[in-house]
Amino acid sequence: MRFSTRAIHAGQAADTATGATIVPIYQTSTFTQTSPGEHLGYEYSRSGNPTRTALEVALAALEGAAHGLAFASGLAAETAVLSLLRPGDHVVAAEDLYGGTIRLLTRVFEPMGITTSFVDSTAPGAMQDAVTPSTKMLWVESPSNPLLAITDIEVAAAVAHNAGALLVVDNTFATPYLQRPLELGADIVVHSTTKYIGGHSDVVGGAVLLNDTGLRDSIAFYQNAAGGVPGPFDSWLVLRGLKTLSVRMRAHCENAGAVASFLDGASGVEAVYYPGLTSHPGHELAARQMPGFGGMVSLRLTGGKETAHAFLRSLELFSLAESLGGIESLASYPADMTHASVSPEERERRGINGLVRLSVGIEDIEDLLADLAGALDTVRRGQR
Ligand SMILES: *Cc1c(COP(=O)(O)O)cnc(C)c1O
To answer: What domain range is 317 assigned to?
Structure first.
């Protein structure tokens, strides 16, 4: 089966008890046993629930993974992966990561004795140079948040494997429709299914996808032991969302490409970050690694923070909100929102201050471009 077929059918056969065509929401905490220890495969919904199983099978099928595990959030999924590490272990992470991942590594795991070196994963040799004898994991995001930097996943996998370490890829921005890191050598993929996979900004969720059965068992043990699982209704919402992932991603890519071209060279716009633009430093790599360039576009306006704030207030269709990957267009100011937990100096060094991030939705492109043009006009008039 090919991608769009898997999204609709994998793990989603008609319900054996009732014939229900769509996987039911098994809204139950427990399952009745016929005799102590004798049951139909489910005992208690933290350990397993049929709606969650359907989601886990479908997600694994999309990533081309042998195993899938669903979590209550992207960060719960990341925590489960990091539970593989022990005090004294070292992580080499890309520096341009989701702010919550940086917070998790530096403020939750670092005090427990697991240290992280953050490096520019797009610079040749930078990850290799940061590896120490204690390095057990490499962690990258591509395209990254919020600068949309592209990391060569095959190279990262080679560095990790030479060091006897695992490569983890946060594939939230690309989605399995545009990039399947396991096929490029990664060991573990994590997702915030809150974003494109859920796709409708109505649920928070996460997932871990992988091929190695031993690692799967360790992470599944943690999933049950620590308990950060999604409920049946949340699992169902993500499952409902992922059925249309391919059509949505095609529309996101098309609209984001048009938005990036419009902004590139528009008066008042200093820089546009979109891997689909030939001017993007990661363009050629992105073109090799992904069949499309995704739905996220970042930009820098001439005039800095005040101008950026005025621009964001002037947008009417793009909602000023955190998050991304839903059908509706969103705009944000990472320095004050998603990346507020990164220190101001660090934000300055990495070029996050002043940046505006757009999650381009699947509305009609004419309306989106008119909204952006109107906001740029308003800002220019305000500056005169
Ligand atoms: C949102 C996000 C996360 C965290 O996911 P939650 O579902 O909010 O916990 C992790 N990585 C990336 C790239 C994200 O965008």
So the answer is: 245-383
Are both 266 and 322 inside the same structural domain?
yes
Q: How many domains does the chain have?
A: 2
3-state secondary structure of 193: coil
The 3-state DSSP class for residue 207 equals strand
* 312-365 confidence digits (pLDDT tens): 999 999 999 999 999 999 999 999 998 887 889 988 988 899 999 999 999 999
Looking at the annotation, which residues are catalytic?
Answer: 46, 98, 170, 195
73 lines ligand 1 (CB under 6 A): yes
Looking at the structure, tell me whether residues 266 and 232 fall in a common domain.
no
Which of 176, 210, 242 is the endpoint of a domain?
242
Give the tens place of pLDDT for each residue, 37-92. 999 999 999 999 999 999 999 999 999 999 999 999 999 999 999 999 999 999 99
Say whether both 190 and 63 belong to one domain: yes
**Ligand 1 atom with the shortest distance to the CA of 173:** 13
State pTM to two decimals. Answer: 0.97
Q: How far is the CA of 98 from the centre of ligand 1 (A)?
A: 7
**For the CA of 97, the nearest atom of ligand 1:** 13
Which residues contact residue 290 at a Cβ distance below 8 angstroms, ignoring those fewer than 6 apart?
Answer: 174, 178, 179, 275
Phi, psi of 93 (to 5 degrees): -120, 150
